[in-house]
Amino acid sequence: MKFHVLTLFPDMIRDGFQTSITGRAVEKGLLSLETVNIRDFSVNKHNRVDDYPYGGGAGMVMQAEPVCRAYESVAARLSAAPRVLYMSPQGKVFDQRMAEELAKEQELVFLCGHYEGIDERVLEEIVTDEVSIGDYVLTGGELPALVIMDAVSRLLDGVLHNEESAEFDSFHDNLLEYPQYSRPEEWRGKKVPAILLSGHHANVERWRREQSLLRTRNRRPDLLETANLTEEDKKFLAKAEDL
Ligand code: 9D3
């Protein structure tokens, strides 16, 4: 997968991406990241890329021409027209299903806005997907682009260790995860649940499933609507109404 990011803050993207698991995946050659500084495509002698909004109002608008030229500098080197993801509070809200769809692409272009937005005319020309990461207000599209690149990267072959990728299955059930414990057996007077020390694998698995069910019902009841529940799961939840 090749990520290309059009932004006024390339350092923020590079710094965020080149650490940890995604950084390791770049070193292994599984991923690549190119940042394109939109300011390098300014058509103005002062290197400006924004101007006042027609019709008035607060803030500044990023101009169409520098954004379009930044995009063309990437597209010129690609054989097919890539998907271009515009990070925007007006976009479709990103989720795991979208991450799985995006992970099928060879190249992804991210367009990060700042100020009050980008001239609509260039968006109409180049954007294929408008994406938000949730209903809260940030200062720009850079963190959302990093969030999406992170979620997509971990789905690609070889990016996670095999042990880590087995964990995919649990999210597919649409349930929250059960609680985890490690040594010591007692910490500041708090004991590890006895069943986890019993060595009885089937009982441990049942207890973990029940914990997942209870947590999901109590914290994210919306997820239960689409969860894959067995008859045994449903019986348990009915009986555990007050837990
Ligand atoms: C004037 C109205 N504001 C919207 C509430 C303007 C505005 C605020 C913040 C426009 C852009 C931004 C910067 N945010 C993003 O670029 C952004 C974002 C976000 O703020 N939340 C969740 N997802 C995203 S994706 C891009």
Task: Describe the secondary structure blueprint for this structure.
Elements (H helix, E strand, L loop, with lengths): L1 E6 L2 H8 L2 H8 L4 E6 L12 E2 L9 E2 L1 H12 L7 E11 L2 H7 L4 E6 L7 H7 L2 E4 L9 H12 L8 H4 L2 H5 L13 E2 L2 E2 L9 H19 L1 H4 L6 H9 L4
Parallel strand pairs: 1-2, 1-6, 5-6, 5-7
Antiparallel strand pairs: 3-4, 8-9
Helix pairs in contact: 1-6, 3-5
Bound molecules: ligand 9D3.
The site of ligand 9D3 has 16 residues, from β5.
What proportion strand? 15-25%
What's the β-strand tally? Answer: 9
Helix-strand sequence: EHHEEEHEHEHEHHHEEHHH
Figure out the total of helices: 11
| Class per helix and strand makeup | alpha/beta
**Low-confidence runs of at least 5 consecutive residues:** none
N-C termini distance: 45 Å
Oligomer: single chain
Q: List all distinct small molecules, including ions and cofactors, that are bound in this structure.
A: ligand 9D3
- What integer value in Å does the Rg equal? 23 Å
> Largest sheet, if any?
5 strands, parallel
- Mean pLDDT figure: 95
* Sequence of strands across the biggest β-sheet: 2-1-6-5-7
Range of helix content:
25-40%
Judging from the principal axes of the Cα atoms, what is the shape?
A: elongated
